Amino acid sequence: MPLIKLSHIYKTYQVGNEKRDVLKNVSLSINPGELTAIVGASGSGKSTLMNIIGLLDHPTSGEYLLEEQNFLHLTSDELASIRNRQIGFIFQFFYLLPRLSALENIMMPLMYQHIAPADAEQVAAEWLAKMGLGHIAQQKPNQLSGGQQQRVAIARALATNPTLLLADEPTGALDSKTSEDILRIFLDLHAQTHKTIIMVTHNPIVAQHCQRIIQITDGEIVDDRYL
Amino acid sequence: MMWQFYWREALNNLWLSKLRSVLAIVGILVGAAAVVTLVSIGEMAKYKALEEFKTLGMNLASLTVNQHIDFSNGIDMTHTLIPDYNYAEKMLQLPDAISNIQNVAPVSTLSLPAFFKGKKLDAPIVATTEAYQTLANLTLIQGRFLNQLDRDNYFCVIGSDIAEKMRANGAIQLVGSEIQLGNAYFTVIGVAAPWVGNTFISNNVNSDILISLSAAHNFVPTFYVDTILLKLAPNADPDAMEQQIAHYFSAQFPSLDVTIKTGKQLIQSMTHQKNIFTWMLGMIGSIALLVGGIGIMNVMLVSVSERRREIGIRLAVGAKQIDIQLMFLFEAVMLALVGGVLGIVIALIITDVVANFLAWPFMFSGMAIVIGFFVSVLTGVFFGIYPAYQASKLNPIDVLRSE
Lengths: 227, 403
Known about the structure:
Chain A is an alpha/beta fold and about 230 residues long.
């Protein structure tokens, strides 16, 4: 049974008097444990697709089942709670909170589960150590390199032990050497935990390491193949 | 545990925008200080009023008597002047005539040179009656007070300071000594204990020489009764009393003006002053709190717009709207609370200064502190709600997309 099932998804934006279809009739199933790359030019609709999969955005029409459940009718608070427990987000520009230390950034999603701070801190410290960053726990994001920041962000995404990991251009802001390190983390993570990972990427090297590549052009899936 | 998390985040965020936080705090500080000062000064005034009640007794009053002389009709003033002793006698009958007056002591202050053993005593001479002792609450340490049976005997009672002076001049036995007043000799029959003072009695009894009205009448024919101390029935209405007394005198002495001053009036005027003060401070406090509150709202709105991305990230990783609202609300309340605490400290200083200035006993009640806290927290909540609500309504994808 698929973890993600999208059927006939449309997303339409009203731009002035003109309607613009960002996603047109997208149907897609992703099984648990798959490592999928979504590729496409900018403006092709791949980020919108990620937002819908990540329960951050609603499709204009169509059906979306996550673990066979339809969450689209839920309130924003209920969706927040599902995102918190089931989905881990990784962004191109890391999106760490500048005021918090690396450790506190990782603790944040746990705090929203109302976990005791001491317990949250312990979990966060474990993840930081797994990312090889135990020594920078108290540093602020602006004291860290891009690669370190993205590893903190990955730790934050994993701290709540989600079933689905969504990474939007995770290497887009990094040099090629660092990109390789980050890719390695994703591949190791996938090999060890078999988490479902979806990555939006421009980088063909990153895409080539995934099990499945979905190509989107102008809001439509034009290619979907397993490697 | 969640609270701890919110507080820590709030503190952290405020610390990182110190200048802005300080500006927001100042407004609240002024407001809270004004409100707390108002409460504590109100309390002091209340205490002070109660003290006055205690020392005066509520039923004491003083009557000021003026003869108004009308020159316009060309009548020679010497004929319109009333021999004072006549109405002094009539005054003594006041308790019989007006039921709400229980006791009465006419007072005439004479300026006559006083000498003891040839040395000048700098002492005002007060001519009065037996009732004065009770009304002024005067106790004697030696001898006795003036009484009716003395008639016009030249007896006097001396205040404690006078007694001191006389001892300094070699007097051993005060009672029985003679003091020269003008060209008459008065025998000391009593020595008063140090006297604490009374709002109704303008002179200081400690440095007075008291003689009987009859004696004064005898050797100073033109003496003048200027004040009458009255003891009123506990529930007597001062305004009605004034009219009754004026009416009482008007039949016989139409040229007399009487003005009554009662404990109630004194306390009323004190309360009135306090009310003006309360209004003024209340106005300043409210305006300052309003300005401070708007300052907080402004700071919070700027903070929300600067932290749109942060809010988006928090919402994406699972913050509920209430989490975002509480985060900003805690910051607003924290600002208000810091302002409030500093305001309370400043109010404490102001209260101390005011207490010193008015020679009131310094008092700072727990009530004032509680009100200061309450008012500042309330301001923080009130002006923090809107920015907090704005923040929680942000759409994470709108915020995260804008790179």
